[in-house]
């Protein structure tokens, strides 16, 4: 086997493309869950974002408008979830599942006129001078702006949750909504904001898929990535950088196994196909191995409905 | 995810079934492995379903379930379809084979048609297309058009259908370009545009400048277009996804078969059969050739297609050895259908191990 045929730079670039939709979706869901809400509709919000981003890019010719539309579309679908679970007090698990089904169907319907059209190219944000450097140029300075945005998002969410007053309030609502309510925080409003934020992130993640990773629209193209994002949040024990790492491990191993196959490594492809799931779970479980601490990290009110009593 | 899409399908189906009691049309059901909008495999099956409706009007009533996962879950979907009064059910993916047989046993009065499988029963027919004939034609094109002598092949699952396609394409490419190499990546899914795109990128990274695929979405075609290399439409023409990249395509035409079988149900002549139609039957279409293909090559490929139709050329004609060097076909000998249908080996010259 000729290892020189494996170009680490190209693999790293492909890895980033595979991981970015997961980063957006997982970070968004992480904020939602930190506020004590379990939204299983990530897949639905992603696919609606995917078609919204694709459609608006087609109609306006602007990828920026496309991303913005995806963000809004994801948030709109999330607003539906927020209304159902926060106002009508419906069951979060059932509503989330319904949201996924609804999103998949809605996207398929909206997307009909957009099937069979290639996407316009997504501009790369090549940083002049730096992007032409060997190795680190393509690795660090020649991506589309959404990749940098995903990094900023992760850092921002980490800062928000751990270093800001707003984050403290959000976590308080997720840990003990009755106490938070008692000292005067508006639990429903805060949770709704978190849900909308999560929806917007998932929407952008989906748009990344239809605008950059596989630049086309086909029904069901998220192919389960929303569920992977949900799993990453849990295995990352609700920590933003771990979720980021999880997305990159998953993306990285997926890409590496495809490259290994293309090189003709004699490992059966079924095992290679399994590895992204296995490795991601194993790594995240190991770094979250301290059970007591991991449990502490799970928002205590996750998935529990809040009634303002009195 | 799997369970969900089935739930969705079941819900959609329940809605569809409710509306249909009035007259007494023949009820025909279809089960698809992907969404009808995949612009590949399931899309073409659904086109044929619509052709059946157009042909028979209100004498027939069709319904379909899309994105039904292969394996045990398919059984529930099938049983539900059989219970709700369907007379004829088309199960359109290889992985539905055992569920189809199992449910067919429980519903002896319902007729089943299973695509690309090899197990039959009194009320289960099988049908498929000799896509390997098409693979031969596009294999010739690929072998001549590659400059790096490296052809990338995206496989779904290592089942005979897919392995046969790889072998046929390889033998054809090799016959016009002795230096040609195939790099094969298995994605273990029929439909995942993101993953198919990743696989195409990995193959291009490994030097492939022509991509073939045996998966259902046009994602690889869009990547080929982006990277300025060549690819082939799979199941549908896919030209719109790669106006420059697409060299030709293998197109599935199920309509003639579906119309014939539904007709047989209506006049009571349906019986369990095994149909394996090739280019000559109209079930395998070869898309028009791109103008990137030089005229002499296009003529050569057209001649091969004509010879296949005329029965003068069999894509598997000896001498052919298996990958391990053991003899398979002697000079001039052609492969029998039984071996082709159960093909579980690479031919000599393909590198890499076939997953078991």
From TrEMBL, chain A:
Q: Which InterPro entries match?
A: ABC_transp_permease
Location(s), subcellular: Cell membrane
Instruction: Determine the domain of life of the protein's source.
Output: Bacteria
Q: Which Pfam families match?
A: BPD_transp_2
Instruction: State if Transmembrane is listed as a keyword.
Output: yes
Taken from the UniProt entry, a GO cellular component term is: plasma membrane
Q: Write down the membrane topology.
A: Multi-pass membrane protein
Report a single Gene Ontology molecular function. transmembrane transporter activity
Provide this UniProt record's keywords sorted from A to Z: Cell membrane, Membrane, Transmembrane, Transmembrane helix
Q: List the transmembrane segments.
A: 35-56, 68-87, 93-110, 145-161, 193-214, 220-238, 245-265, 271-289
Give the chief site where it resides: membrane
Does the record carry Cell membrane as a key word? yes
Q: Report what the protein is called.
A: Nucleoside ABC transporter membrane protein
Where does this protein come from, organism-wise?
A: Albimonas donghaensis
Task: Kindly list the organism's lineage.
Answer: Bacteria, Pseudomonadati, Pseudomonadota, Alphaproteobacteria, Rhodobacterales
UniProtKB/TrEMBL annotation, chain B:
Per the UniProt entry, the signal peptide is 1-22
> Which top-rank group of organisms is this from?
Bacteria
Q: Which InterPro entries match?
A: ABC-Purine-Binding, Peripla_BP_I, PnrA-like
* UniProt entry keywords in alphabetical sequence: Signal
Domain spans labelled ABC transporter substrate-binding protein PnrA-like: 27-312
Q: Does the keyword Coiled coil apply?
A: no
The UniProt entry, under Gene3D superfamilies, shows: 3.40.50.2300
Q: Carries keyword Ubl conjugation?
A: no
A GO cellular component annotation in the UniProt record: plasma membrane
Indicate what this protein is called per its UniProt record.
Answer: Nucleoside-binding protein
Say which species the protein is native to. Answer: Albimonas donghaensis
């Amino acid at each position: 086997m000729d290892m020189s045929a494996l170009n680490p730079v190209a693999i790293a670039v492909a890895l980033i493309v595979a991981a970015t939709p997961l980063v957006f979706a997982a970070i968004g869901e992480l904020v939602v869950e930190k506020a004590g809400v379990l939204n299983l509709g990530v897949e639905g919000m992603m696919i609606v974002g995917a078609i919204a981003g694709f459609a608006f890019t087609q109609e306006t010719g602007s990828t920026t408008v496309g991303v913005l539309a995806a963000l809004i579309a994801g948030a709109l679908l999330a607003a539906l979830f927020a209304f159902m679970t926060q106002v009508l007090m419906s069951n979060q698990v059932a509503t989330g599942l319904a949201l996924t089904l609804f999103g998949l169907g809605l996207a398929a319907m909206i997307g009909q006129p957009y099937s069979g059209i290639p996407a316009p190219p997504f501009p790369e944000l090549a940083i002049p001078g730096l992007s032409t450097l060997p190795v680190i140029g393509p690795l660090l300075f020649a991506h589309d702006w959404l990749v940098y945005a995903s990094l900023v998002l992760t850092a921002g969410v980490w800062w928000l949750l751990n270093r800001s007053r707003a984050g403290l309030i959000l976590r308080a609502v997720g840990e003990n909504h009755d106490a938070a309510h008692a000292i005067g925080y508006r639990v429903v409003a805060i949770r709704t904001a978190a849900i909308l934020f999560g929806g917007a992130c998932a929407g952008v993640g989906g748009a990344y898929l239809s605008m950059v990773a596989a630049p086309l629209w086909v029904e069901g193209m998220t192919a389960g990535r929303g569920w992977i994002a949900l799993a990453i949040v849990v295995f990352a024990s609700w920590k933003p950088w771990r979720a980021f790492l999880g997305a990159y491990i998953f993306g990285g191993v997926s890409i590496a196994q495809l490259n290994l196959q293309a090189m003709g490594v004699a490992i059966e492809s079924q095992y290679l196909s399994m590895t992204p799931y296995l490795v991601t779970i194993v790594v995240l479980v190991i770094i979250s191995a301290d059970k007591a601490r991991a449990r502490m990290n799970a928002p205590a009110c996750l998935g529990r409905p809040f009634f303002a009593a009195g | 995810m799997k369970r969900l899409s089935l739930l969705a399908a079941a819900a959609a189906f329940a809605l569809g079934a409710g509306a249909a009691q009035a007259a007494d049309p023949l009820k025909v059901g279809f089960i698809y492995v992907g969404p009808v909008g995949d612009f590949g495999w399931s899309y073409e099956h659904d086109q044929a379903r619509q052709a059946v409706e157009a042909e028979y009007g209100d004498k027939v009533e069709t319904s379909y379930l899309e994105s039904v996962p292969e394996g045990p879950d398919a059984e529930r979907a099938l049983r539900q379809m059989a219970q709700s009064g369907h007379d004829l059910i088309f199960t359109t993916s290889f992985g539905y084979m055992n569920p189809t047989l199992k449910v067919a046993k429980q519903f002896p009065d319902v007729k089943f048609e299973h695509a690309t499988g090899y197990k039959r029963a009194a009320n289960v027919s099988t049908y498929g297309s000799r896509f390997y004939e098409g693979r031969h034609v596009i294999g010739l094109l690929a072998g001549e058009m590659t400059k790096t002598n490296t052809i990338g092949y995206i496989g779904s699952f290592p089942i005979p259908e897919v392995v046969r396609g790889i072998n046929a394409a390889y033998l054809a490419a090799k016959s016009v370009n002795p230096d040609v190499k195939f790099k094969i990546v298995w994605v273990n899914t029929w439909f995942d545009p993101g993953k198919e795109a990743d696989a195409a990128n990995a193959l291009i990274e490994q030097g492939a400048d022509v991509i073939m695929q045996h998966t259902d979405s046009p994602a690889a075609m869009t990547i080929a277009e982006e990277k300025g290399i060549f690819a082939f439409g799979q199941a549908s023409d896919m030209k719109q996804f790669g106006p420059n990249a697409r060299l030709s395509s293998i197109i599935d035409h199920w309509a003639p078969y579906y119309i014939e079988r539904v007709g047989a149900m209506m006049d009571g002549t349906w019986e369990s059969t095994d149909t394996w139609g090739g280019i000559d039957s109209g079930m395998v279409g070869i898309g028009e050739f791109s103008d990137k293909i030089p005229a002499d090559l296009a003529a050569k490929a057209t001649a091969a297609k004509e010879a296949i139709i005329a029965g003068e050329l069999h894509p598997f004609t000896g001498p052919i050895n298996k990958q391990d060097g053991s003899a398979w076909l002697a000079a001039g000998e052609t492969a029998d259908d039984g071996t082709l249908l159960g093909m579980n080996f690479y031919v000599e010259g393909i590198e890499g191990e076939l997953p078991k």
